[in-house]
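Hi R.,

Here are the chain sequences for the assembly we discussed:
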Amino acid sequence: MSSAPSLPEGWKSVATPPSLFRRFQFDSYGDTRAFLERLAALSKETGLYPDLGFGKAHVNVTVYGKDGRAPGDHELEFASRATALAVAG
Amino acid sequence: MSSAPSLPEGWKSVATPPSLFRRFQFDSYGDTRAFLERLAALSKETGLYPDLGFGKAHVNVTVYGKDGRAPGDHELEFASRATALAVAG
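And here is the predicted structure of the full complex:
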């Protein structure tokens, strides 16, 4: 077993269904949309498509583990990179 | 009072909180993203920003009434136009 990376800042580990969750707040609809665009690029690169919920100034990201399993390194790395994208300006 | 337009196809009227809801299914992530782009343009035009939840092949749209009131003509028109955008190819 590889040692799992720790949970990125602001993320919660959810037991049922096994997933990682974080809510991101933004100052404007433009910032919200820009973050969603970056997430779309990240999904394309990683092949990982989280459930996304958003309004004018927030985005909720839920990253499920594969096939109902607990999130692993792949999902944790996605969460970490998503967090970086939220502050990429 | 103006006569309210009827609920567009596939939409449900939700009592608490007062809102209109519909789930749209798509064949691909590309179609899903294209619909979200069209919704963004519609939001910009109408000033109405629904809550949107999406995954790889679906989009859930929740249109709230203004200030906690029941959805009115403005929201019903948004729902109707969103429905048309989902089949715009």
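The radius of gyration of chain B is 13 Å. The CA atoms of residues 39 and 82 of chain B lie 7 Å apart.

Let me know if anything looks off.

Best,
T.
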